[in-house]
Amino acid sequence: MSVVERLVCATPDRPAVRGFLHRPETAPRGALVLTHGAGSNCGAPLLVAMAGAFSSAGILVMRCDLPFRQARPHGPPFGNGAQDRAGLRRAVEVLRELALRDGTPVRVSLGGHSYGGRQACMLAAEDAAITDRLLLLSYPLHPPNKPQQLRTSHFGKLETPALFVHGSRDPFGSLDEMSEALRLIPAHTRLLAIEGAGHDLAHGRHDVARHALTAWIEFASLRSEAP
Q1: How many domains does the chain have?
Q2: Rounded to two decimals, what is the model's pTM?
Q3: Which of 10, 80, 125, 145 allows an S-S link to 154, with CB 3.0 to 4.6 Å?
């Protein structure tokens, strides 16, 4: 069983970090920042399930609210997402500091659901040094019924290995569309298909978390990697 702690980190002139930290029972062998979609927050059931599964496997997990959600409890993101990417950057820094404080340097990965995953992906494309790997849940490839409006302009610059977890009934992009889009990414990628799941990955989310964890361990080779 992991220990869950409320986390609030406010530093002058730096984006605030707010969320929950899931500490594994033993020294962590990896760390992961997870964030939410445009209509949710870090208390989303999917994120809670994912954090529980990953921390039980020895991974230090922070699930956090993006700056737009810290600013108001409801409503969509605003602007071009730059503020949210700055918040993710700070979350990675804080998690890395926490891991070091525990005495063991570990690789820090970054991920999120839908909008949060997209911002994580864009941040990694802007700065390949920010994170070691990406875990992208239901990447919003395009708006529903608008396949021509692809959100892939940064894919060609992405040098960070990325695991995409995607439902077969996701209106934001079919599995075939996702497979085609991932060819634009020069880094190593894998697409984990969740049959019957929609964009929220809500149906059987605990099974989704277990499947994602299994794929992540294989993808990231956490069993054999040294930090």
Answers
A1: 1
A2: 0.94
A3: 125
The residue ranges of DSSP E strands in 72-131, in sequence order, are 108-113
Query: Considering the chain, what is the average pLDDT of its residues?
Result: 92
Mean pLDDT of all residues in 184-213:
91
Q: In whole angstroms, how far apart are CA 64 and each of 32, 84, 95, 102?
A: 11, 11, 11, 20
* Contact by Cβ (8 Å): 33, 92: yes
The CB density around residue 12, as the number of other CB atoms within 10 Å, is 4
Which phi and psi angles does 111 have, rounded to 5°? -165, 180
Task: Look at residue 34 and give its three-state secondary structure.
Answer: strand
- pLDDT-derived band at 16 (thresholds 50, 70, 90) equals very high
Q: What sign does the dihedral 216-17-88-70 (CA atoms) show?
A: positive
Q: How far is CA 83 from the centre of its chain?
A: 17
Residue 19 belongs to some domain of the structure: yes
Amino acid at 18: R
The angle formed by the CA atoms of residues 216, 222 and 226, to the nearest 5 degrees, is 150
Is 225 among the domain residues? no
For residue 226, give every residue at least 6 positions away whose Cβ sits within 8 Å of its Cβ, in sequence order, or none. none
Q: Is the pLDDT of residue 50 over 50?
A: yes
Task: Provide the domain limits for residue 212.
Answer: 3-73+80-220
Distance in angstroms (rounded) separating the CA atoms of residues 106 and 91? 15
Residue 189 has pLDDT above 60, yes or no: yes
pLDDT at 110: 97
User: Looking at the predicted structure, is the pLDDT value of residue 102 above 70?
Assistant: no
Specify the CATH number for the domain of residue 50.
3.40.50.1820
